[in-house]
UniProtKB/TrEMBL annotation:
<feature type="domain" description="Nucleoside diphosphate kinase-like">
    <location>
        <begin position="46"/>
        <end position="195"/>
    </location>
</feature>
<dbReference type="InterPro" id="IPR036850">
    <property type="entry name" value="NDK-like_dom_sf"/>
</dbReference>
<dbReference type="InterPro" id="IPR034907">
    <property type="entry name" value="NDK-like_dom"/>
</dbReference>
<comment type="similarity">
    <text>Belongs to the NDK family.</text>
</comment>
<dbReference type="Pfam" id="PF00334">
    <property type="entry name" value="NDK"/>
</dbReference>
<protein>
    <recommendedName>
        <fullName>Nucleoside diphosphate kinase-like domain-containing protein</fullName>
    </recommendedName>
</protein>
Amino acid sequence: MTISGNLSASGFICEPEKRALFATDSYFLDGCELFSDTDETWRFAFTHALLLLKPDAVATRALLPAIEWTSQAGFEIAAAARIRLNRNTVRAMWHYQFNCATPQRRRLAEFIGSASDSLVLLMRHQQLLSNASIPATLLLSERKGPSDPSRRTPGQLRSHLGDRSFLINLVHASDEPADLLRELCILFNAHDRIKLVRNALLGTDQRNTATALAKGLYDDVPRRDLEFEPAAHRLASEVEEYARNAGPGLRSRLQTGLGRALRQPSAWGPLIELIWQQNLPVDEWDLTVVGCASLPMTLDQHAPLLASVSRTKWLEAFTAVAACPQHM
């Protein structure tokens, strides 16, 4: 039987288009090899979920509130690890969404993802041991909340941690079981992911480990507010200082761009582009916060290669499979 056939039968993936793409995705194929038995792989991927607390969560001191929220939401922390993303891991994680992202969004996302170490939580939900209508990944993804702050609702993790912007959204969660397997293989090499999974299968709650890792990150990474108005104020001061010492041509362009930005916050975009073009030594977090609020994020002529998975789509596709005793 082909890989795509196994996926269809075992319920890793909801949509046929996604099954076709993942059938040739080397990260996902590696994830399918975590266990020698397909049912064992399915059982692990169905009952566990991955939450990535990104550098913006570290900087805003959202790690400990997120850990507390997971307990309130009914999740146990099965394993935890501190990792460092880079440009390539950021691109791989969001490969199927970046086709409709602007170059500016990709650049900003790369900085946010690699600005410091991140915290990975591998979690399980006790209700799934007796009620397996949807996987842990989808349950967590729903409760995490969408990237768009205007679509979030009270009680969702992103709303709980504080609404900022489309990109400065603090956390990422795998959509469905296949994404969990794929993302484990993006974030961790073979040795480290096997170690993480083995720790998760011990069945203990690793909340104390996660808390210790979070406190270590707080010690190592300076706190930042990541709010638009203070970031814009600090960035304006840096641009003014640089303009005073620049040549006449660049000085004029910086002063003109800054004047427009100060009159209308949405007009920061061209000045951000000029700062990048000239490689000005400004604070990167302030530049990113202002850029996220003023630069274009989406290429309207394109749609993401893969859309988010909804509870309705999952139940329509896999209710019968999820209820099958041989998979529990």
